[in-house]
Amino acid sequence: MQTIRGFRDILPEQIRLWQKVENLAVDLFTAFGYEEIRIPILEKTGLFARSIGETTDIVEKEMYTFDDRNGDKLTLRPEATASICRAYIQHKMYATEPVRKFYMTGPMFRRERPQKGRYRQFYQIDAEVFGLDAAYVDCELIFLLNELFQRLGLSGLTAHINSLGCPECRPRFTRALLDFLEARKQDLCDICTRRMDRNPLRVLDCKVQTCQTALTGAPATVDYLCPACEDHFKTVKTTLEKQGVDFSVDKSLVRGLDYYTRTAWEIQTTSLGAQSAVAGGGRYDGLVKELGGPDTPAIGFAIGFDRLVEIMEQLTPASAPPGPDLFIVALGDPAMELAYHLCCDLNQAGIRTDTDFRGKSLKALMKRADKLNARYVLIAGQAELAENALILRNMQTKEQVSIPMDGLRRKIETLLKNK
Ligand code: AMP
Questions:
Q1: In Å, what is the CA distance from 267 to each residue of 57, 58, 264, 284, 419?
Q2: How far is it, in rounded angstroms, from Cα 154 to Cα 157?
Q3: Contact between 63 and 56 (Cβ < 8 Å)
Q4: Which residue out of 275, 284, 305 has the highest number of ligand 1 atoms within 8 Å of its CB and is therefore the one to mutate?
């Protein structure tokens, strides 16, 4: 039996980097007042179709959707924003405190063509802010990403930012875009010609090469912003500049989801080959209302956890796991019984202890202690038990001391805790 295409196991040898990233992210988000939220993996299909957009690649081609036994259409979540909005509305969080900051990590599912850095089950670290429309919040989120990557020791990442405008400025832009597309219709793929009628903005993130070529010189949203959006974007840029956050304005960045308004961004790297986006985010001021909640500005980002770890793997050589504090070499049944109880007691007391119940020889067990990188070894052989004193060996200095069985656990605790 093998995993399904695009799905993979993350093994203990790999997990340390994942834990390091997650611990740092949680510390950072917590310091900035973000609270953890956990959302279901499965939701009604309509939630994603309505929020991400019927004409996006995700909804048109990539969702894992199935009919439940009672006929409900369900989908494995392809992203977190829609579900977090649903939770914000469903639990009427806006009624008690409209300004809320959330983070979450977990798996997402998209049926894309798998390759390095692109999986069908992948993981995201996500942050969302509700109830604030100030440009400073946009900056805080971009700053947070920048700070996290710095704390992880990553360099060479650039924030590409753009403004997608709001319902006020969109119609003027859409008209200009349609005029542009109309003149190049014959060069666009079938999906794009269909999208022209339903959602022309989506044509801009088509990945087909001929479409990309035809789109050279296409109108850009930033050139059609209304005064309020223009101001908002200007504050984002000047604030980030003042903070020394590295960014560049990318007029062609539109992101693959329909709900974005105003600031949208991607953090890109050159070290991952074709998959260059490590994180992406943006404002979605209309989404809470669209999903049935009150008019609430909101904004968020998602980090591609798998990709982030892949960049870190290139920089950090794999490290061995920390060894146990103590390894008990137990020879014979009575020694094994003693080792079992001692292991439980010492681990309970915070001294990482391991043993081996396979009945191996002294030589084999010493080798195992070495391989595990144990700091100390406690030798419990027949002779030691007969003499009521076990041998404790410091694996680094090779020093050995004899410890009487009477009060053994306490003595080991004192000895190891003081070293
Ligand atoms: P999105 O939700 O599309 O804005 O994606 C946010 C981030 O998730 C991207 O910048 C990627 O780093 C990551 N990501 C998206 N799709 C995949 C995938 N299929 N495999 C791995 N990472 C992904």
A1: 20, 20, 11, 18, 45
A2: 7
A3: no
A4: 275
Q: Tell me the HSE value of 278 on the side-chain side, using a 13 A CA sphere.
A: 25
Q: Ligand 1 pocket test: which of 104, 120, 122 has the largest number of ligand atoms within 8 Å of its C-beta?
A: 122
**pLDDT tens digit sequence for 195-239:** 888 888 889 888 889 999 999 999 999 999 999 999 999 999 999
pLDDT of amino acid 318: 72
User: Of 50, 261, 235, 298, nearest to 170 (Cα)?
Assistant: 261
208 against 403, higher pLDDT: 403
Question: What's residue 256's pLDDT?
Answer: 79
Tell me which residues have their CB closer than 6 angstroms to ligand 1: 79, 110, 112, 118-119, 122, 124, 256, 277-280, 302, 304, 306-307
Type and span of the H or E element at 149: helix 135-151
Work out the average pLDDT over 169-179.
Answer: 93
Q: How far is CA 98 from CA 4, 80, 130, 293, 358, in A?
A: 42, 19, 7, 11, 59
Tell the residue nearest (CA) to atom 2 of ligand 1: 79
CA of 375 to the centre of ligand 1 (A): 42
- Mean pLDDT value across the chain: 94
What DSSP element (H or E) covers 130? strand 121-130
If one residue of 118, 148, 254, 259 were mutated to test the ligand 1 pocket, choosing by the most ligand atoms within 8 A of its CB, it would be: 118
Q: Is the pLDDT of residue 404 over 70?
A: yes
User: Which residue minimizes the CA distance to atom 21 of ligand 1?
Assistant: 118
Tokens representing 382 are 């027949």
What is the average pLDDT across 245-250? 95
Q: How far is the CA of 111 from the centre of ligand 1 (A)?
A: 12
Residue pLDDT, tens place only, 352-383: 999 999 999 999 999 999 999 999 999 999 99
φ/ψ bin of 247: left (φ > 0), alpha (ψ from -120 to 50), beta (otherwise): beta
3-state secondary structure of 386: helix
Q: How far is the CA of 170 from the centre of ligand 1 (A)?
A: 26
pTM of the model: 0.92
Which residue owns the Cα nearest ligand 1 atom 3?
256
Contact present, 392 and 403 (Cβ < 8 Å) = yes
User: How far, in Å, is the centroid of ligand 1 from the Cα of 65?
Assistant: 19
- CA dihedral sign, ordered 106, 107, 108, 112: positive
